[in-house]
Specification:
heterodimer, A: 289 residues, mainly alpha, 14 helices, 76% helix, 0% strand, B: 271 residues, disordered N terminus
Amino acid sequence: MKKSFFIVLFCKLFFLPCVSQITRNDVDFAFYLFEGRKFDEVILLFNQKMPDLKENASLKDSINYILGMTHYYRKELDKSAYYLSKISKTSVFYDKSVFFTALDYAHLSEYTMAQTVLENYSTTKFSSKYDQLLAVELAGLALLKRDFELFDRHAKKFKFDQYYYSNSQNQLLDVRKTLSNHRPKSPAVAGLLSAVVPGAGKVYAGQIGEGIAAFLTVGSLAAITAENWSKNGLSNWKTITFGTLCSIFYIGNIYGSVASVKVYRNQFNDKQNHIILLSIHLPVRALFE
Amino acid sequence: MPCLSSAQEFSTFDRADSLYFAGDFARAALEYERVIFESETPDDFNIAIFRRVQCFKQMQQFDKASAELQRIRLFTLNPDQTVEFYYERILCHYLNSAFNAALGAVEEMYFNVADSSLCNATLILQVLVYNELQQWDQAKQAALAYARTFSSPERENMEAAIHELYAKKNLPRLKKKSVAQVLAFVPGLAHMYAGYWLEGSVSLLLNAAVLAFGVYEVLNGYYITGYLLGAGTLSATYFGGFSRSYHLLQKRNYERIRVFNNQVKKELLAP
């Protein structure tokens, strides 16, 4: 919420004070720059010349569309969402802008905002043309929120009969299955395993290489400590030094194993979210570009 | 602004030109693009692109400048303008450190320009490009061709200087990777071969110390300590020395080429 406020403030401060006359020719030039993928120059153009937005609604929509899509391609998704969400329902860019706004919010992890945008759109008369796309997007967003009940409701509308969506629909169903079958790994078990056999907790967390490295390090230090203990006794400086080092690595390895499970959880969630985002992104790009 | 001189009136360029001369190169480039957007003749189109190239060069965006030149409609240029186009292209690639692309542009220029004497304007750039690619013979030939564009006695002086510069004894002596790879089996020797004597000595002493520690421990009956600590540490320092020595070799060769190329630049570009 705070972030959105600052984006709006930024846009108003930088663009609106530069109010001057703008012509259809300027907008055509902006389209020309945009189609030539000269995104830096699109921004520069509107930075120096911004219309009085109250004057002409069609011009205003065109400019918001160009700026929104330009920021989208520059991966400035917050600004992209800001401009695209301002396009009026009468504009030819309206349908496209709705889906791209939702995508922007989804990538910004603002899933509820994305859902709201699409749900508002689904109540309009324009939405019937894109009912399958809407179902994919809303199902994907439900999955991102791990709301399986809502996902199932939207997934019931999948028809698998159109090239644009069928792949994404299948992928979303696969992710749904993976997420519901997934049994999260326990940090406590990882710690316990590493306490018994150094490195075993990391192997349990899926990091086999790190587990072997931890086993060799702690094992080597333990062997050196044992050798010095047996030959020089417990109070010898070498025994104390290597024993201390071994203890530090042993405890560190247990702590590392617990952390590894948390990293594993994040990696698993990130991977699934990535697949979901891709599944809701590709049909929109394929359909509108 | 060195680009495509012409007797035409450039009233549409006025705004862009004024921004360029005011040092606002980003906006000037934008306005030149507007000229391209509105252009009705190929001449306006080409001139605006040339000027955009100047803007990008001023902003040190040489990759963009190179990309911009790809838009030029080559078939509309006369031979002088064609050479000017290739001059810019070679220069932008050179400034962008894309030396092979610059060489490609040189070859393309000789293929596309019927009167090769017109290409003399690019000879200095050719020398610089060949030098960067360590093609000393071609660099020398281009430098001599450049000298021949001057009249006596300046030409003779220049030719003598070029022969001296490109004499075998003066060419940068580059260290061989194959030699360094063999020497690297003795820790520190490859570092010394690359000219880094102090670092080589430290590497030699460090490896010797670790090896001595391991052997000492084993001789005293501490087999585990000797093997794990001695050999373990030695493997890290020994094999680490291989990659380090290769890096130093490349660094030294780069420095030597740099010194030589700077000397050539100084000689050719001297007033």
